[in-house]
Amino acid sequence: MGEALRDLLVTPAEMAAIDEDAVHSGIESFSLMRSAGMAVSAAALRLFPSASRFVVLCGPGNNGGDGYVAAAALAESGASLAVFALGDVGKLKGDAARARAAYAGEIQAIGTYEPQAGDVVIDALFGAGLARDLPDEVQEAIRRVEDSRRPVIAVDLPSGIDGRSGEIRGASFTAAHTVTFMAAKPGHLLLPGRTRCGTLEVFDIGIPDRVVRARAGDLRINTPAVWQQHASGLDPATHKYKRGHLAVFSGPQISTGAARLSAMAGLNAGAGLVTLVSPPDAIAANAAHLTAVMLKEMGKTGDLAAWLKDRRLGAFVLGPGFGVGKKARAFALMLCGRALVLDADAVTSFKERRTDLFNTIAMEGGQVVMTPHEGEFARLFPEIAADTALSKIEKAQAAAKLSHAVILYKGPDTVVAAPSGRTVVNANAPPWLATAGSGDVLTGIIGAHLAQGMPAFEAAAAAVWRHGEAGTRAGQGATAETLVANIPPFDYSATRPMGRVAL
């Protein structure tokens, strides 16, 4: 697999088109199936060399064909084997029928399978193209396997996971390992599918990179390859203003902590200067906690208008602990022509006035990033959030197009989408990032990137990745403060390979 494909995400529809294009280019379709099935058998023997028996569950389509190829290879290796099929194997067509014919062993009905001690199950029932609930007999087989706690190797995607959305269609296997082909699918990274895949192996079955790239859209796994060209090292002759000046707006006296977290994160993430902009009543509280972060008093829109004449101000963060209401809306609208992160209260403040915000962003043309979590997203984009036919990726894309801003749709499966359609799904965040103040730290990192001149999409994608790495470095006892201290530098010469990753 070429380097260009390692970070690629393709939808099931795109993958189907890629398969067709490969065949039209002269590649025999059965050779692709054979490569897929052989990869599965190799994974089974490599991962479970002491298995008492491999049990292959084969579906009625090409995923089942991959399973029959794997079964034939396992039988040839001398492994103990049992094959169970869904439906009438006499009705198989095309490559699946050819694969079935190449397997000489007995095939039993899936309803007769009873897990035994020592079984390793190979799930070749349904792949990433599944878009309906599983048949009852498959759901029952899944329950038996899950109850038995037998390890499962999934072919393409655990059966029951929608490859487009990651949703569970009635039931699904929980795999220890998943082997997919050419590129990962959204269902491998989006929840809840992500939690059912185990480790993910992306295997090259022989489709040329150019064929894959020709059909793939603008969807990627978030890795440094997406934004690294915008994260160049510091010039030895640089000074603090070249590294960017970030301004973070504080809330009132009793709500100052969130903004200070963002400010410190921005400083640690590389901004040359950070100023905390404080209302008069919070000056004393903020001053008592700041050292390297500068402090500026500001109460009214007129004060902000005067300050904005200083073009050295590179980027702004508005929202953490700021308060919901008229002042947040006024400040946000004044900043839409600049590099701006709108988070938390700033997002919620436009619940009833979102057209004002979206039109101003479009008119002013600033580099604007909005960072809603699920609740905030539903408040600002209620019709998109309520559309159950859309995946999280599609919701983020629709919101970005509507708002004219980069949308960072937060969660364990954070999605970053640009109005142009470019989208990344993040996969490096540990679960203990779900801690108070974590989002404020993320917001500050985005602000630092914007202050240093990164475009909004790359600034947001890079920040999500660095935030995840900070969580890993901080460990399971991470707090917002330790996240700030563990923000990694922009040094990504050795990035993690995507050939096999734990999800």
TrEMBL record:
Leader sequence segment: none
Ranges for domain YjeF C-terminal: 223-494
Residues covered by the YjeF N-terminal domain: 15-213
Reactions this protein catalyses: (6R)-NADPHX = (6S)-NADPHX; (6S)-NADPHX + ADP = AMP + phosphate + NADPH + H(+); (6S)-NADHX + ADP = AMP + phosphate + NADH + H(+); (6R)-NADHX = (6S)-NADHX
EC code: 4.2.1.136, 5.1.99.6
Binding site for K(+): N63, D123, S159
GO BP term (any one): nicotinamide nucleotide metabolic process
Cofactor note: Binds 1 potassium ion per subunit.
Chain positions recorded as (6S)-NADPHX binding sites: 62-66, 127-133, 156, 258, 321, 373, 440
Matching Pfam families: Carb_kinase (PF01256), YjeF_N (PF03853)
Needed co-factor(s): Mg(2+); K(+)
Keywords assigned: ATP-binding, Isomerase, Lyase, Metal-binding, Multifunctional enzyme, NAD, NADP, Nucleotide-binding, Potassium
SUPFAM superfamilies from the UniProt entry: Ribokinase-like, YjeF N-terminal domain-like
Family the UniProt entry places it in: Belongs to the NnrD/CARKD family. In the N-terminal section; belongs to the NnrE/AIBP family.
NCBIfam families, alphabetized: yjeF_cterm (TIGR00196), yjeF_nterm (TIGR00197)
Quaternary assembly: Homotetramer.
Listed name of the protein: Bifunctional NAD(P)H-hydrate repair enzyme
Gene this protein is translated from: nnrE
